[in-house]
Amino acid sequence: QVQLVESGGGLVQAGGSLRLSCAASGSIFSIGTMGWYRQAPGEQRGMVATVRSDGSTNYADSVKGRFTISRDNAKNTVYLQMNSLKPEDTAVYYCAARLYGRIEYEYWGQGTQVTVSS
Asked: Euclidean distance between the first and final Cα of the chain, in Å?
């Protein structure tokens, strides 16, 4: 089992920055890829950014150049640095973990609200 706890959400003005953190505990040795997803009201949850165990990253087109995902394996924590925030970035952000050899993300955090005012 893996437990994920997010922190760092909040209210920020457009153009501002926030950093989200996700601390993992439990069977962390089995975690391959970690990612950040978001869900806005009335929309489906979508991928924001992912980072593999080797450090390789992937981003949604809408956040490329503005968001940076990073992973500190010593602290079992993944971060999402969000710069130049836009009102359309407003959503609940979820941390997710996918085990080695698995296709689907099995573990999710409780979510943290990010609100960007115009």
From this structure: 40
